[in-house]
Design brief:
Its cofactor is Zn(2+). It contains eleven helices and five strands. The protein is of the alpha/beta class. A five-stranded mixed β-sheet has the order 2-1-3-4-5. Helix 5 packs across helix 7 and helix 9 runs antiparallel to helix 11.
Length: 220
């Protein structure tokens, strides 16, 4: 095991040279402005690289990541990112993105003990408890992915009910909140239809998205 991580510095030099060769002046332009249209709130899982998934370059996507893509109203880190994105960068879209077979969601579903992170995953356990009746109707082998999607719905709704987003909507700022899920098995994003562009949209969008999950996972 190396201690200096020289391989990462070499990879960085190669990436910077390749990027500059493909688009001369790329890094000098990045210095001038940061004007992303999108805030991505995703899982910290290393298999879910936000920019690459949607083909965007640095500077085009503002990103916040944590275990299981949670948006807690007590989390000043997430709230500060949302506030800066909305008030400072004037993003137009906030996208909460979960992913299939999420380890944090799996731990919350199965009451696995992992250590300190168990306290953070209590937020996902709350989602599990809220939707326990639905989850019990779903085959056990599909419950992790179903809870991943249910967690996205709840976290997207949490975004919609932050004071930052509510205040922005109240003053007429255009912001659309989305809930998506990424498939580790196929590399594709799916829109869960949890899409709200105003406070009055939230309940209907949530209900529609919840119906979609029920239709996908519960046999007729």
């Amino acid at each position: 095991m190396t201690t200096q991580l020289t391989e990462l510095f070499e990879s960085n030099r190669q990436w910077a040279a390749r990027t500059e060769a493909q688009e001369p002046g790329f890094f000098s332009k990045l210095l001038e402005q940061q004007t992303p249209q999108y805030l991505w709130i995703g899982c910290a899982d290393s298999r879910v690289p936000a920019n690459e998934l949607v083909g965007l370059l640095p500077g085009e996507l503002f990103v916040h990541r944590n275990v299981a893509n949670v948006v807690a109203h007590s989390d000043l880190n997430a709230l500060s990112v949302i506030q800066f994105a909305v008030d400072g960068l004037k993003v137009q879209h906030i996208i909460v993105v979960g992913h299939s077979n999420c380890g944090g969601v799996k731990a919350a579903l199965n009451d696995m003990r992992l250590g300190l992170v168990d306290n953070w995953l209590r937020h996902v356990k709350d989602v599990r408890h809220q939707h326990q009746a639905l989850l019990e109707q779903i085959p056990p082998e599909r419950r992790v992915d179903a809870l991943c999607e249910l967690n996205v719905l709840e976290q997207a709704r949490n975004v919609c009910t932050t004071t930052v987003v509510l205040d922005a909507w109240a003053r007429g700022q255009e912001i659309v909140v989305h809930g998506w899920v990424y498939g580790l098995h196929n590399g594709l994003l799916d829109d869960l239809k949890m899409t709200a562009r105003a406070a009055e949209d939230v309940d209907a969008a949530y209900a529609q998205a919840l119906r979609g999950i029920r239709q996908r996972y519960v046999a007729d």
